[in-house]
Automatic annotation (TrEMBL):
KW Disulfide bond (keyword) present: no
Biological processes, Gene Ontology terms: alanyl-tRNA aminoacylation
Alphabetized UniProt keyword annotations: Hydrolase, Metal-binding, Zinc
Species this chain originates from: Rhizobium lentis
Obligatory cofactor(s): Zn(2+)
Keyword Manganese appears in the UniProt entry: no
Protein localization: Cytoplasm
Descriptive protein name: Alanine--tRNA ligase
Length: 245
């Protein structure tokens, strides 16, 4: 039975109850529902803990998908205890880590607004994220930072709209990424919209994001690297240029 991925409708949900539905030979745990984001689209999976009825904890490494997107595997760290099938657990996401990833992922969307080129690769990190653009132009990183911070400071709303797989298939041009496809096969696809009536951006994405751009905080383009004749890698970091977050 497909897992109920609660994070898809509430990015700020950091704890919930769930029942163990499967325990794999390698220790991976499946639950009937979860607030843990599973690694996808360049964003790492959530870490955290599973709390048992007696108060003991099972520490988890990054969450991942199984054979399909409707399977989510919670991965215990080495030598952690194993729960029983049917056992009820309380899930606790490592919220400070998740929130930094939400801020970073939203910042990546803003960067794709400032640099409106096709995206050839991306990776979201806690301290630094990168986006690769299909572009040959030379661009000043301080100018890009200023435009990023302008969007952050304007405090645009960030929200989801849902479209069907068929609607996305009929409008393929809304996808900016050239090699990472939106999560299909679940019947619906989430559009991450920025600005009233999507005035700033609208992009298919299954990741987690903050609810307004001001939450991103201080962000800057730390480096722009040439990765080929027509490819530029932008690295963004928290904090002002020259300082740590």
């Amino acid at each position: 039975m497909p897992v109920n991925a609660l994070y898809r409708d509430d990015f700020y949900l950091s704890t919930c109850e769930a029942v163990v539905t499967a325990v794999h030979d390698d220790g991976g745990i499946e639950l009937d529902q979860t607030c843990f984001y599973a690694a996808s689209g360049g964003q790492p999976g959530d870490t955290g803990q599973l709390e048992r009825a007696d108060g003991s904890k099972i520490a988890l490494g990054p969450t991942k998908h199984g054979a399909s997107k409707d399977i989510i595997i919670h991965v215990p760290l080495d030598n952690e205890p194993q729960p029983e099938i049917g056992e009820t657990l309380v899930l606790h996401v490592d919220w400070p880590r998740r929130y930094r990833l939400m801020r970073m992922h939203t910042a990546c969307h803003l960067l794709s607004v400032v640099c409106s080129y096709p995206i050839t690769g991306a990776a979201v990190g806690e301290e630094e994220s990168r986006i690769d653009f299909d572009m040959s132009e030379t661009i000043d990183k301080d100018e890009v930072t200023a435009r990023l911070m302008e969007l952050v400071g304007q405090n645009h709303p960030v929200y989801l709209q849902w479209i069907t797989d068929d609607e996305l298939a009929a409008n393929p041009d809304i996808v900016k990424s050239k090699n990472v496809r939106p999560p299909l096969g679940l019947g619906r696809v989430s559009l991450v919209c920025i600005g009233k009536n999507s005035s700033i951006d609208s992009q298919p994405c299954g990741g987690t994001h903050v609810s307004e751009t001001q939450e991103v905080g201080q962000i800057h383009v730390a480096k722009i690297e040439k990765k080929g004749k027509e490819n530029r890698r932008f690295r963004i970091r928290f904090g002002a240029p020259g300082e740590e977050a």
